[in-house]
Design goal:
Length: 69
């Protein structure tokens, strides 16, 4: 799915640009090229970053629970 039509950036490009859960939308945008023109894609970019951060947080919690068991 295209996140940024101006720069032909896909959701896969965005996912690949996220190297840690602490990455901000601006950092990810710089890495993948999204948001550099009109900025209309920034809300979707922010949604993807938040979704991936939440997913990673859940994985971390699951690992901690397993380690305590």
């Amino acid at each position: 799915m295209y996140v940024c039509h101006c720069r032909a950036v896909t959701d896969g490009d965005v996912i690949a640009a996220i190297s840690s859960p602490a990455d901000s939308v601006q950092v990810v945008a710089r890495r993948c090229g999204a948001g550099g023109r009109g900025g209309g894609c920034l809300p979707e970019l922010a949604r993807l970053v938040a979704q991936l951060v939440e997913r990673e947080s859940g994985r971390r919690e699951a690992r901690l629970r397993r380690a305590r068991s």
